[in-house]
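Q: What changes when ribose-5-phosphate is included in the input?
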Amino acid sequence: MDWGMENRISRIIKPDTNRTVMLAVDHGYFLGPTSGLEDPAKTIEPILPYADSLMLTRGVLRTSVAPKSDIPIVLRVSGGTSIVGKSLANENITVSMEDAIKLNVSAVALSIFVGSDYEKETLTSLSRLVDAGEKYGIPVLAVTAVGKEMARDVRYLGLCCRIAAELGAHIVKTYYCDNFNRIVKNCPVPIVIAGGKKIEEKKALELAYNAVNEGAIGVDMGRNIFQSDCPQGMIKAVREIVHNKLSVKAAFDLYKSEKK
Ligand code: R5P
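A: The predicted holo structure follows.
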């Protein structure tokens, strides 16, 4: 691996723990003004100090994050679909590698839709993105998007993660499921988990705990942080679980004390 690629990855995955807390606020690229992200700058500002990186689109990066910020950026570079369109899976690459470099990103992110009508297109987009990233030393994070009809189980997610890794993704983002450790075992690159839809705070902390306990290198969490009644308490609690192996109970107590 070349120096630039390795340096960028180490900005995201912290070398002292080999783990990471990524804050995902890219939802608007297909959901529009997502609840909690109506004013992204306002949402991001108080929780940013507790994130190791920020995953977002270039539009929100330019408008809502100060250029003097030193937070590593994971830039969402796939899209072209919306929640009211015909298929969410029909994504394409939406940002050139040159613009990602101009924005000084630490990685780029793209979704793959395995098993959908657009499986081939999204997988070949991933390959093209990896080729472009390799040219300039920019790591690629592949998101294993799950269509409504797909089961979020070990067989399906294991298939998606392995294919993403085989095609050259440097980090894979997927969902937690039963027997998650088997997904990790069969995937040769680091895995982070998405939080998914908002659930009770304690359940979200359990999710983070179980994922890292079973081999994930961290989380790329959005709604369960910024839609919480105490986003700062949640990200602090998640951070303690991911980097310091705090128990769910202690992390939940931390969230509750922050809430007070
Ligand atoms: C979805 O494709 C987006 O990449 C989200 O950023 C991702 O799902 C993580 O956010 P959440 O924790 O809200 O699921």
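Observations recorded in class: The longest helix spans residues 119-136.
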